[in-house]
Design brief:
By secondary structure, the chain is an alpha+beta fold. 31% of the residues lie in helices and 39% in strands.
Length: 127
């Protein structure tokens, strides 16, 4: 479990919009750890250097918002996500959104939970 800073920005619905963001980050050696693009064009990013990435994107005319999120590593087994979401629920933590992935041969999944208070969620749920 880790509390990470997530960056959110709005992408235009045009070819190359995501590629341009990735190019800016790649050029400065910022590694994308997780991302999600919502239907309305909101790009959510968890990167290895959020302070540098945020400044870099702002310098390239993106409006960037920051939020602490809970990143949980789980076994890639049936029921793991249910267990994690139940722990949050039992602690009285609502989930605003979540995204994640697994690497099949690694046996682990990384899930990003957007919650109102990541520190409280981590403490209360035991993650």
């Amino acid at each position: 479990m880790a509390i990470r800073t997530e960056l959110s920005l709005r992408l235009q619905n045009s070819p190359g919009a995501l590629a341009r963001v990735c190019q800016h980050l790649w050029a400065e050696r910022v590694n994308i750890l997780a991302f999600c693009i919502e239907g309305g064009g909101t790009l959510r990013l968890v990167v290895d250097n959020p302070l540098h990435a945020s400044g870099l994107l702002k310098d390239n005319d993106y409006t960037v918002e920051q939020r602490d999120v809970l990143v949980v590593h789980l076994p890639s087994d049936a029921g793991s996500l249910e267990n994690a979401s139940r722990l949050l629920s039992n602690a009285g933590i609502g989930i605003d959104y979540a995204y994640g992935s697994t690497v099949e041969d690694q046996g682990m999944a990384a899930i990003v939970f957007g919650v109102e208070d990541a520190q409280r969620a981590a403490t209360a749920s035991g993650f």
